[in-house]
Design brief:
Elements lengths: L2 E4 L2 E4 L6 E5 L2 E6 L1 H11 L4 H6 L1 H6 L12 H13 L20
Antiparallel strand pairs: 1-2, 2-3, 3-4
């Protein structure tokens, strides 16, 4: 994608696997391109040119959707805590003795 300069920052996206973000000619981030874009937006005073340039990447990213039912972390924690203290009750099976187990007198 190339190099994008804004204010005192420069984003090098020429390598597809790693994006480098420089601020005042010092490397501040190297990694995921989406993360570099968000860092650049949050660090810049005038965010609109950056948002306009990377509009496609920002809108393509889907927000995570979590369901509210069944995901109550506190209830799961309490349940695990209660079950941890209890001893498990297991029934022992009685084994049947075969005819060979008895001694003949």
């Amino acid at each position: 994608m190339g190099i994008f300069k804004h204010e005192n920052m420069e984003m090098d996206m020429s390598i597809s696997s790693k994006t480098k973000l420089y601020k005042d000619d010092k490397l501040i981030f190297m990694g995921d391109g989406y993360k570099a874009i968000t860092i650049m937006i949050n660090s810049s005073k005038d965010q609109q040119p950056v948002k306009d340039k990377f509009h496609a990447q920002l809108t393509m990213r889907e927000k995570p959707r979590f369901s509210s039912k069944g995901d109550d972390l506190e209830a799961l924690r309490k349940e695990a805590h209660e079950s941890f203290g209890k001893k498990s009750e297991t029934k022992t099976k009685k084994t049947k003795k075969s005819k060979l187990d008895y001694k003949l007198i």
